Amino acid sequence: MSTKAKRLSDGSIAFHCPGCDGMHHVKEPGWSFNGDFESPTITPSILVTWEFGDERVKHVCHSFVKDGTIQFLADCTHALAGQNVLLLSLDDARLD
Q: Cα(79)–Cα(55) distance, rounded to whole angstroms?
C-alpha cells in the first residue's frame, strides 16, 4: 500500500488535496487522526479558505477524510465539490 498522509515536524498531519492540487495540514487536538497513514481518517471536517488574485476571490475547500477517501462537500469552490475521491499516494502527488 502507499502512504497517503504524513506527520510533519510540527506534529501536524498532511495530505494532498486533489481538489486544490496542494497539501492540507491539520493538527491535534483540534482534529483526530486514526494513525493509519495508508488509509487515513481525520475528524471533524476540514475547512480551508483563502483569497486569491488582485480581486481577492474567495476559495473554499471543505471535506471529510475517511478511510483514505476525501469527501468534498457542496460548499467547495473547486471542480470536485460534492464528489468522493481516493487520496493520492504522496509519491504520486504534487507536494508543494
A: 20
